[in-house]
């Protein structure tokens, strides 16, 4: 188990450093010209947090006793693969259906079908998340998300907020 923890933690640290090295090509602080964060801000700082979290996992792997427990049992592996496939399908849908269709579809699948949550949880989260994402990214940060075939539906919203 510790070997898997260490390999994965080191891989995540390596990926984070790679992402950070590319993010610094853009401003990573507040951009006074646009009144928002620089283009490299989120990739850099999120990669840094990811690297620190992985470093914590790596440190913890050296502090605990050695265990011969399997890294994944079959049920866990099946769950991880099904979520990974669903994330892949979500990403593949984004250029065509857009973020505001793909993300709610994933959330519906994850919450209702995979997680078996009730409708009182599924409906508000599935409907309110795209609204939050629109206002957070497009209105507040002025970062446009892919919209695919739904782009014409956003013209009235752009007229209202920009």
CA-based gyration radius: 20 Å
Task: Determine the mean pLDDT.
Answer: 89
- Low-pLDDT runs: none
Secondary-structure element order, N to C: HEEHHHHH
DSSP, total strands: 2
Helix content: over 70%
Question: In DSSP terms, counting alpha (H) and pi (I) runs of 4 or more, how many helices?
Answer: 6
Strand order of the largest sheet: 1-2
Please tell me what the overall shape is. flat
Q: Strand-residue fraction?
A: under 5%
Given helix and strand content, the structural type is mainly alpha
Q: Largest beta sheet, briefly?
A: 2 strands, antiparallel
**N-to-C span:** 52 Å
SSE layout and pairing:
Elements: H1 2-23, E1 30-31, E2 36-37, H2 41-63, H3 74-97, H4 99-114, H5 119-140, H6 155-161
Antiparallel strand pairs: 1-2
């Amino acid at each position: 188990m510790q070997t898997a923890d260490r390999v994965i933690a080191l891989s995540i640290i390596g990926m984070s450093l790679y992402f950070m090295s590319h993010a610094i090509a853009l401003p990573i602080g507040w951009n006074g010209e646009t009144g928002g964060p620089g283009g490299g801000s989120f990739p850099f700082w999120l990669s840094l947090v990811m690297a620190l979290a992985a470093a914590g996992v790596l440190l913890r792997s050296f502090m605990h006793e050695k265990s011969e427990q399997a890294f994944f049992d079959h049920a866990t592996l099946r769950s991880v693969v099904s979520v990974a496939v669903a994330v892949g399908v979500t990403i593949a849908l984004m250029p065509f259906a857009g973020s505001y269709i793909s993300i709610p579809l994933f959330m519906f699948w994850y919450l209702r079908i995979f997680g078996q949550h009730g409708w009182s949880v599924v409906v508000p989260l599935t409907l309110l998340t795209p609204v939050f994402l629109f206002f957070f990214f497009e209105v507040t940060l002025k970062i446009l998300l892919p919209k695919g075939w739904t782009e014409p539906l956003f013209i009235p919203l752009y007229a209202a907020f920009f």
